[in-house]
Write a structure and sequence with these properties.
This protein is α+β, with helices and mostly antiparallel strands. The chain is built from 22 helices and 17 strands. Bound molecules: adenosine-5'-diphosphate and magnesium ion (5 copies). The site of one magnesium ion (MG) has 3 residues, from loops.
Amino acid sequence: MGLLSVGTPLPWTEAKKYADHVRTHGITQFLHIWDRLKDRSGDELLWGDEVEYMVVSFDNQQKNAKLSLRQTEILEKLSSIVDDICADCPDSVSVPRFHPEYGRYMLESTPGSPYTGSIQDLLSVENNMRYRRSLARKHLNPNEVPLTFTSFPRLGAPGQFTEPYFDPADAVSSHSLFLPEEITNPHARFPTLTANIRSRRGSKVAINLPIFFDKNTPRPFIDPTIPWDRNIYPEDHEAKDGAALPDHIYMDAMGFGMGCCCLQLTFQSCNVSEARRMYDGLIPIGPILLALSAASPIWRGYLADVDCRWNVIAGSVDCRTEEERGLKPLKNDRFRIPKSRYDSVDLYLSEDWTNRPEYNDTYVPYDEAIFERLRKHGIDDLLSKHIAHLFIRDPIVIFLENLDQDNSTNSDHFENLQSTNWQTLRFKPPPPNSEIGWRVEFRSMEVQMTDFENAAFSVFVVLLSRAILKFQLNFYIPISKVDENMARAQQRDAVNECKFYFRKDVYTPGSSAASTRTPSPTSSCSCNSGTGPKEKKLRNCFSPPVLPEDGFVNGHSVSDEYEEMTLNEIFNGKGDQFPGLLRLVEAYLDTLEIEPTALTKIQQYLDLVRRRSNGSLLTCATWVRNFVRSHPAYKHDSVVSQEINYDLMVAVDEIERGVRKAPDLLPEYYTGGNKDQGHLDGI
Ligand code: ADP
Ligand code: MG
Ligand code: MG
Ligand code: MG
Ligand code: MG
Ligand code: MG
């Protein structure tokens, strides 16, 4: 989440009057940034992760695991601790940062300063994550544990799932049947977001996940835990009037989605065009890594037939009106909008010749006046369209005190829209008055239970991003196929059950990589031509793909460029043509000077990715599903009871600390994070 402004948030009826004001000044702010920084170049690779935690409060007498709502106190404590460490420590030590998130039980942590491209920094990621976790853990109550778990299994289920208990009847912002007001971060921004999304939409959000039918799950499944006849808020009738679908798990509030935890990565690029190239390169990777990191099979106390959070979050902030959703003819609203403001990327952005216009093949509404304004200012068609598309949305939270800003030094109005377009990738312009360059954020991954896994996925993505740039890899497939992959990625056991569209030939004609490619399944990829000394660090500023002199033209049909592959094939290769992402990453590693012990550690991370992708290790989601289905108290009716949830949360903590083995989930060399901090002893 961005910086939290203070002031008076406007209710939707007021806020909407200022929507054009915010958009107009937001664009002015972007143009200031553009004018100052469009030619900025030479920025080094800096990168960082964001890890989100839910603080779970264990009641070992009642055998209940609940969400601790002490976020405010915890963050106050952590920030004073962090300040103390800062006062004592040498400048070179990076002191972690903790940030608030939507859920009042959530924390986010980031490294104190971004990692550089050094191999040493690459290897410090896991320890950095562990340090952050242990710092947080040390300053919680003895029965509280920060878990990196994507969706809390019993959020919104009957009984007590928060500590302390609150009644959903008081949910004045969301009007939820299931979640109390106190689930939400009390800072004015969050209840206002929640209420204004509901008001703008004209109803509560409605999320329906297919239930996982186990052998004793009633058919049809009509959820007995929905208070169908409650009559407190005007929207209470929605559930029975069709919002809650049979055979589905129904959720009706922002907290179900924004209360999930994820793992995000941000990379600084050399300059704006390299940022756009990398953004495009990572777009088709978004759904692939969502599938591989799948970690959320339980929702509101039930096993779902999906493994991921994505559609839940998309639905949880879907502020589109009925007209915008295409349910009514357009009358008061301006656009039909195919997706929620939280969804997969809509447009490729690069100006490289490899980005064929045919790849942007979906209907993408954009604000024509804003588009014209950007074009007149000299901004190219693609970037203008990207911004004009983000700006079809209304600003949802506006602070009265913040309406007038100095547009040359402030970007709050721009960020108001930019940072509430929650897409799989985010193209981040430099903030004014900072040293920060053009960045790209990779946002699709689910958080894993251990920092070993979180580090492994992070290291894999940063190395892949370098391979994309260094070897001028071409991953383009039509956006419509990326969208299809997003849907498939969330299906139960997608790793083993689904195929994904992927590009068959990932080498750019004319690039050095293409001319030397002969990767065979037995040798490591030889796409690196091997000339020149090895590099000592991961870097930025690679040469862009150049249109070959022989006038190579894109004469063939786009539909010949891709095919459906399994995740195993995407990661580990298919035939002689497609080397697989892992071999591309290894080829990139070959271009670096890395000492053997460091290489061994990196190979362990890649090994985790390999074993998850070929099915020899389970995804987190499958492991969790199996845990529930083999629990002695499980009745094979899809219900994840308080007792099962308690045992699951205990197991997750024990796995993280390495005191419980999970050989089907983690490699044998995983020895655990914070062994010394058992919570169960002596409580
Ligand atoms: P968000 O707006 O996505 O919540 P955060 O500030 O929480 O962003 O996290 C941003 C991440 O980017 C952190 O991991 C941070 O270390 C990293 N970061 C900070 N500065 C840079 C930079 N100049 N280039 C790349 N990454 C950076
Ligand atoms: Mg976050
Ligand atoms: Mg953040
Ligand atoms: Mg954030
Ligand atoms: Mg932020
Ligand atoms: Mg982020």
